[in-house]
Design goal:
It is a single chain. The chain is mainly beta. The protein contains 2 helices and 6 strands. A two-stranded parallel ribbon has the order 1-2. Strands 3-4 form a two-stranded antiparallel ribbon. The protein is globular and about 40 Å long.
């Protein structure tokens, strides 16, 4: 996805809207139905196209530090997601920055209040 500018501390919600996917009331900023593109990784770029942040599964080969492991894909008990904890902090190591959770029901999108000091 191109041409989206985020403020420091601003959220961006990606959601899988395929059958059985995301179904919560906060509208996603972007949806997908067949998986995350670019080999299971998401990059945040600056205006010059340089990578500012990157998160990816270990099998993708695209991640910071150590990649995150896959979460369950068969019959999860509720909404599943990865989120950066603590929110807004980046140690440049995906395995330390991102955590998997089931039934986390606090999604944030671009309309949510900014996180932290800006």
């Amino acid at each position: 996805m191109a041409s989206v500018t985020l403020e420091p501390g601003q959220y961006y919600l990606l959601a899988n809207t395929a059958s059985g996917g995301y179904s919560l009331s906060v509208p996603p900023d972007q949806t997908y139905a067949t998986g995350i593109g670019d080999n299971r990784a998401v990059r945040l770029l600056d205006a010059q196209g340089q990578v500012v942040d990157l998160v990816g599964f270990a099998a993708s080969g695209q991640f910071e530090g150590v990649g995150i492991p896959d979460g369950p894909t068969a019959n999860p008990s509720g909404q599943i997601s990865w989120k950066r904890l603590p929110s807004g902090k980046d140690s440049d190591n995906n395995a330390q920055d991102f955590f998997f959770g089931e039934s986390w029901a606090n999604p944030q999108n671009r309309q949510s209040p900014l996180y932290g000091d800006n």
